[in-house]
Amino acid sequence: MKRAFQFTAALIGAVLLHLIGVRLVAEWSLVLDLMLIVVVFNTLDGSTSAGMIGGLAAGWATDALVGPVFGIFGLVDSIIGYGAAYAVQRIVIQRPAEAALFFALAVACQQGLVLALSLLLLRDPEIPAYHWLVIKAGATGLVGALVFYLKRRVTSQVVTWRRTRRTRIRLER
Questions:
Q1: By three-state DSSP, how is residue 134 classified?
Q2: How far is Cα of residue 122 from the mean position of the Cα atoms in its chain?
């Protein structure tokens, strides 16, 4: 229940940040995919079912904001969520540089699948310039690594605080 609440809060935050970013920068959707960061971050514990369901929810949110009518991002993000969780079961990600590479590869896979499905399903698919793929992979990788680093840092601080805090002794009468 806690995990579902955290995922939902992160997804709502990503959607709100996306809406703000689109207002400020016209090419925001071409530069950064915050919903995919939430999906991949959700899979870092290796739960394939949580990755798939979270990917579907985040993909539907992406479809509602920027996607085509067919729900391509719902399908693709669920595949990415499942695949990322499956990969995390077999590899260890401990440093932000590894996380950046993992997030960037997830973006590259997502964009490849979206392009393939768009070519198969749409009569006139809108194909962005290839330099946007590199920019999106780099930016999403960096932001994903930053979130990964901040979460590890905050978790470490909380563990240290819990271990070193002093409890007050209370005498009851």
A1: helix
A2: 26
